[in-house]
Amino acid sequence: MTKKYEIIIIGAGVVGTASMYALSRYSEFKDVLIIEKEKDVALLNSNSNNNSQTLHSGEIETNYSIEKTKETKENAKLVVSYANKELSEDERKNVIQNCQKMTLAVGDNEIDKLEKRYDSEFKEIFPYVKKLDKKEDIARVEPNVVKGREENENLLALFTDNGYMVDYHNLSKSFMGIALQRDSFKAKFNEEVKEIKKTSQGYTVKTNKNEFLSDSVLVTAGAYSLFFAKKLGYGKNLGILSVGGKFYYSKKVLNGKVYRVEREGIPFAAVHGDPDITDPNITRFGPTVNIYPELEKGNIYSMPDYFRSLNFNEDTAKSLENILFDKTISKIVKENLIYSIPFIGKISFTKNEVNKIVPSLKPDDLKLAENVGGIRPQIIDTNKKQLALGGTAIEGDGALFSVTPSPGATSCLKEAMDNCLYLADYNEKRFYLEKFKQDLDYKL
Ligand SMILES: Cc1cc2nc3c(=O)[nH]c(=O)nc-3n(C[C@H](O)[C@H](O)[C@H](O)COP(=O)(O)OP(=O)(O)OC[C@H]3O[C@@H](n4cnc5c(N)ncnc54)[C@H](O)[C@@H]3O)c2cc1C
Question: CATH number of the domain that 116 lies in?
Fold first, then answer.
């Protein structure tokens, strides 16, 4: 007789593996299977090359409301507590490292916005963040931000040396390693889920090689989560705007992360400059913003699936029109189209983006990183006909579909906690929430 699992997790990115870890450590579930189509965990958006490696704690995210800022701070703390509790010193440095962080305002408009944010509740939430309003103070922590800058270009920075960069691939590996210590927690790689079916007994999950049975499914398949949700009749009022991002590399010119003041109402981060956790000799600038009709970056086979999951109708058309013709978004899209043009693109990217952070860099100092950068699956709410800020989890009769744009990697353990709560509740099993919160110092 075919074995039946209690839970099947589809997709072993940082959210799927964090959920596997939380189930293994803090729940009564015994039989859990994770299925991943690639040969290892976290090779797509959660791979270190493909995201910005930032632990988003709310200090540098000027587009977050105060509520979201507090939530983000707490979610980020889960990753730090996890690393301190579960990993040896050697393991920890492959996963998470201290990294100074700065929000940089260039010119009077941005300075005004950043001043206002700092003077709000922000100061109480982040008492350790310093306001640097003199160029010589900024130069002390990031010399190349000031070197070569026009005299009359004013700057303001919020700065902390209490930040982190994370290798989310190695973090996922560590989650998986711990979860698989439990004999009845299993993983299958190189196996692609083709179909999920609801039956009277639970779920049948068909892959290109096998068929599995389970009571519940947790779909943490990036943008593909919505594709599967729609196939089962859920998430009808949602769509995805796939925002791809590329990075340029230069020699090391920054000591830490330098983020710009975000443009109003945009849910994805503006171009920033930062070190690479996997190579201390380089600085990365990006991500660019490119809208692709695909569910996975560079995977042309995911294009038809993108249109299937968009479920094109009048509401979707109106939503896309609102989003793409929004003044700020259309400006960003146009600028980034120019950045994609060979030769001219790099000149324009250097002048408009990189030189705002490091004025002295020349186009020849930058190299477009090959095969680097992922997709941020931004959620379109077709009822409200606008982009939603953050991710979503779609619930459906024992199935949960998680879509997590940035800062989804930072909040992987919070997502895992929520996923476990849903699965425990549906299956009438226990998830030891208090223990989870206590061990990982979670206060919300
Ligand atoms: C350019 C960029 C910069 C970013 N920067 C940051 C940052 O600095 N900090 C931060 O917190 N977040 C950042 N993010 C967001 C972050 O990378 C994502 O939120 C996070 O990686 C999502 O993890 P996930 O596990 O949900 O999805 P993924 O990492 O995409 O994992 C999904 C997994 O599902 C698998 N899968 C899909 N379909 C199937 C199938 N049919 N069968 C089996 N397996 C399947 C895939 O192979 C993949 O391994 C960034 C994203 C991008 C693109």
Answer: 3.50.50.60
